[in-house]
## 1
Amino acid sequence: MNVGILYSRIRKDEKLLLTELRERDHDVEKIDVRKLRLGVSTPNERFDGLDLVVDRCLATSRSLYATRFCESYGVPVVNSHETASICADKVQNSLALEEAGVPTPATTVAFTKEAALEAIEAFGYPCVLKPVVGSWGRLMAKIDSRDAAEAILEHKATLGHYEHKVFYVQEFVEKPGRDIRVVATDGEPVAAMVRSSDHWITNAAKGAETDVFELDAELEELVSRASDAVGGGLLGIDLMESDGGYTVHEVNHTVEFKALDSAVDVDVAAAVVDWLERTAEPDSVEVSA
Ligand SMILES: Nc1ncnc2c1ncn2[C@@H]1O[C@H](COP(=O)(O)OP(=O)(O)O)[C@@H](O)[C@H]1O
Ligand SMILES: [Mg+2]
């Protein structure tokens, strides 16, 4: 197949993907999103003849616009703009999970610091305040007291970009020092790991220790439902365990898999490319099946 990779920086994840694609003799077009000019009426010719585009943009804004242009140009893109827009925004993400009946931590959204303080007091302490757009555990706040709540709300309201004036308040989930990351393709788990840390934020990007994790049938079902809830695709599903059972706290759309790849025996890039091949040529797979 002729596959385009939309990127701004080739990280280890993209290297793994590119190596796998080239080993299988696919034609790969690396498209640096920083150099693109995307005409509304005149499609950019870099997209001509591509069977599939894989969005690996780092910046959420670029990812959202670039996927939208691909769709407008009639080029199949993973993940879809729809999936990207749900996953890029924690409010949309939570609503989609809730609407699909996927257990997710109790969350309240408020638009002023006064209303946010009321939401925080209603949850009690500790609770969590998250930026609605963000990743790698950045700018997450665990709020232990009313004093802390007032301080952080005032800082966000005064210093924050307008996105930080949307206050996303969540119950604190008493997880066992770890959370679970599953990479899945259209709801089918590729592999999973636990990320453990002494810190309450257990992102691999924050230095959490990773270890392989075997999914049981209940988790597999939850992963599939969480994937459907956001429209499917190549996704990173984050879950927490607690006395109340599993909750899915978010689904990620330009998922990094280097940490997972080194934590598990599965060749994650190979599984992803298998899925890209099936996605680009669904008919040929049906014929051979
Ligand atoms: N409600 C919560 N209760 C306890 N820990 C949480 C909660 N939400 C997030 N965390 C921890 O913080 C990490 C980052 O949160 P997440 O919502 O996944 O944001 P990001 O998009 O930055 O990865 C999670 O992996 C988990 O370890
Ligand atoms: Mg996360």
Note: The two ends are 19 Å apart (CA to CA).
## 2
Amino acid sequence: MSQFFIDFFRDYGKYIVFLHVISAIIWIGGMIVVKFIVAPVMASIQDVKVRLSRILEIMQRLLNFSFIFMILIVITGTLMSLGLDFKHSSPSLYMLVHIKEAIWTLMALNFFYIYKKRNSAAKQFLSGDNEGTAESIFTISNYLLPLNIFLGFVAVYFGVILRGL
Ligand code: HEM
């Protein structure tokens, strides 16, 4: 079975690495754009209801859009780790693969927590609780998104080390 993944990676490795890297760019890049570019512009909207509803919609679009890339990362990461046969060729780097898996898991858990928090913020908004909605959005924007951006950076750095640099 492991020979299958090694052969598969030999034949399609460049596409797998490409998908892994492009997914990382889109997942982390999307969060960075929303946090540092979109959110400050949204904050300048004076009408509270318009501001909150726009932010909720942007967050929903970001989460739906990123989901596919989060899944692609774990699939391509697993294909790379099996295809490059770290388990046998380099046990120390194989340890790093496990650390990357743990980071991905943390990022995915945080992602689902953001998803839940956004949905409850949307319910608060519909019930007219603007203050509660703003608080939930504040938590997502100032703690949860930066946490995932940071974890993403660490995962990229470990990816560079796995590459052998
Ligand atoms: C299940 C989790 C993951 C596994 C098993 C995994 C595995 C790997 C492996 C084996 C490589 C080295 C590829 C090579 O030698 O050509 C790599 C590179 C890379 N990984 Fe991951 N990865 C995972 C998650 C992530 C995450 C969450 C991100 C960022 C959000 C990420 C970003 C990258 C990047 C950017 C590279 C390329 C580094 C370079 O070109 O030097 N990975 N990954």
Note: The mean pLDDT is 96.
